Amino acid sequence: MSVTALERPSAAAHLTDEQVEALGAELDAIREEVVASRGERDARYIHAVIRAQRSLEFGGRGILLFAKFPPAWIAGTAALSVAKILENMELGHNILHGQWDWMRDPKIHSTTWDWDHADPAEFWKRSHNYEHHTFTNVRGKDRDLGYTVMRITPEQEWKPSDLIQPLTNVGLSLIFEYGIAMYDMETDKIRSGEKPWSEAKPEVMRTLKKIGKQAAKDYVLFPLLSGPNFVANLTANFTANIVRNVWSHAVIFCGHFPDGTETFEEERLDGETRGQWYIRQMLGSANLTGSKAMHLMTGNLSHQIEHHLFPDLPSNRYSEIAPKVRDICRRYGLPYNAGPLPKQYAKVWKKIIRLAFPGGHERYGSPTPVKKRVTKLGRRSAPARLAA
Amino acid sequence: MSVTTGFGTVGRHVRSLARAFTTPLLPDDVLGTLNPLWSRRAPRAKVVAVRRETADTTTLFLRPGAPYAAHLPGQYAGIGLQIDGIWHWRTYSLTSRPGDPVLQVTVTAVPGGEVSGRLAHHTPVGAVVGIAPAEGEFTSPGGKPLFVTAGSGITPVMGMLRSADPADLRHAVLVHVDRTPAEVVFGPELRELAARTGLRLIEHHTALHGRPTPELLDELVPDRPAREVLACGPAGLLDALTDAWPDVRVERFAPKRAAHMDGTGGTITLSASGVVAEAGPDVPVLVAAEAAGALMPSGCRMGICHTCVGKLTAGAVRDLQTGECHDAADQPGRPVRTCVSAPTGDVTLDL
């Protein structure tokens, strides 16, 4: 199938090869500066977050032993929701990236940490740290583009089942942790037969075991411990899990899907230089603006651009290097996509609704010029350009 | 069923129930967060007293938070210290008696030694340090002993002398080498012990008499061949003794390390999978191991995703990005990213 070139250059098309490598060198320098200055202050930070998170979690659960009393239900659910969000985002996601491995603390290490999440840490590290962070926004390689269940760029071929994707997204938002676990087991490939059951079975069993433990804690053990408050305790835990799911879904969808984030052809990976890799990360990511508390509650994924440039630098440093990265973008004439959460999230929703229907290239088409015949591109094979 | 196994079973059930409440954390993680001293899986000890022994040597009195298995006299314990956020572990001889509730380690600040300097001079009472179980083969002798010690090499022997039955010390000889009498760690205590028990203490001061040779020691202790010789001190002395007396038991503080020769590379051994590979000085462990047929965990292959991390159990690797050297002798089992680490000499990884 041949496709016509889309006459819209990438936002980085004006840069010469030398400029791309100079930009790469500047970013390398930022990285080295942070690596050289990691120390006491950073260690204190992560220990403080861990202490705060555990205090909130067990404090909240303590209050919820009296969940029948409405103020206790509200306070306990709020504390537990915040605790679960911190646990997944500022702690789990970042520690599993190896951001804190440099401390050589076996208790805070990417190889030993597990998180309060349906997805076993090992599977998450494979799909997220490797596939998503290495092949960010490369169509057909980065399965995070729509998570195999949604059409998130117009180059993904439209199917009638995409019509319900706004509903799919609401559902995914509510069950996000289970969605991620299913995604990491590659249930799409299991269904299609691409992944044999013999290979999938141990992963499925491990995930189910993990889900069982998490569910037993939230929906059996703590409710039982609260005695006559059983039902109120259970609904509180359920609510906290939903709050965590909806929030993390919103933050994560704002990281790569708002307007202006680019997606890329697989061919781009051939001989990609360090500088080009950096540019792909910057053009494929979007930041959220907001207060310090907001950044903490997003696990500093509000600094998605900085995180994608330097996935293994400690998260507390992203806000410090953000002005430098922004300045680099300004000097090299590159977009630095950032906005408040409600605005970015609204953009994501508009896109998901628009792309539920065929087309969408005029508004959302990838600006990368397409020159070559496109081979297989994962879930939806070819970027059929229906309109341009 | 005996009472003890009954309690053991109950204890197990209680522990697994507690675990179900804290999953994915362990109850121990929660306790350790409340107070590091309560952790049993990452044991800590509190510094309850500090005694200055000489200008550069300090004894730290440590009360472990978790029950500490009694050591054998002469063994050493790992002491962990967080410096600039990074955990550093070093081993020091235990100078207290086995079973004492307060452990003692005696630390001499090594010139340029980041950890020993910090422990000897800047560790206040109340500080919390990491503590590892006691280890070591350099333990109390069975027969009539001759101890040969130099400088801080007295520390493991002090552990043995303090733990020994005073009646047995009558047959023991200690030759201690130091620059001057004032610099002898535990000097007054050793002299008092000799006077009280009949321990034969020979102090050899290099400021006056130069370095001792095996021949000189044979003159000082004529029945040396009939004795079990235990020696601890600088490498030069120990090398001379092991050359002269094959049966001598020695304890080295600075392990004989393979030289980190740039431009050599080495043999990579993967202990879990049994793969052996050769690699040059600039070939990442990952690449060499894969070429040799190993199924290696790998991800981005550029040092970012940490998918390829493996534990370094022996030897040293160089971080190809920073040029930094990571040595298993400094931190056994230290995780290294195989995609950006090349061997400097022979290495073993748990992969």
What does this structure look like?
The complex is a heterodimer of chains A (388) and B (351). By secondary structure, chain A is an all-alpha fold. Chain A has one domain (2-378). Chain A is built from 15 helices and two strands. In chain A, strands 1-2 form a two-stranded parallel sheet. In chain A, helix 1 runs antiparallel to helix 13, helix 8 (197-225) packs across helix 9 and helix 9 (230-256) packs across helix 14. Chain A is globular and about 70 Å long. Chain B has three domains: 9-131, Elongation Factor Tu (Ef-tu), domain 3, CATH 2.40.30; 145-251, Nucleotide-binding domain of ferredoxin-NADP reductase (FNR) module (Rossmann fold), CATH 3.40.50.80; 266-350, Beta-grasp domain (Ubiquitin-like (UB roll)). Chain B is built from ten helices and 19 strands. Chain B has helices spanning 3-22, 27-34, 114-121, 154-163, 166-169, 187-197, 206-209, 214-220, 235-244, 285-291, and strands at 44-54, 57-64, 76-83, 86-93, 103-108, 128-131, 145-150, 173-178, 200-205, 228-232, 249-251, 266-270, 275-279, 309-314, 316-319, 325-327, 334-337, 341-343, 347-350. The longest helix of chain B is centred in the first third of the chain and has 20 residues, at 3-22. Chain B: InterPro entries: 2Fe-2S_ferredoxin-like_sf, 2Fe-2S_ferredoxin-type, Beta-grasp_dom_sf, FAD-bd_FR_type, FNR_nucleotide-bd, MRET, OxRdtase_FAD/NAD-bd, Riboflavin_synthase-like_b-brl. Chain B: This is NADPH oxidoreductase. Chain B: It holds the Pfam family NAD_binding_1. Chain B: Keywords: 2Fe-2S, FAD, Flavoprotein, Iron, Iron-sulfur, Metal-binding, Oxidoreductase.
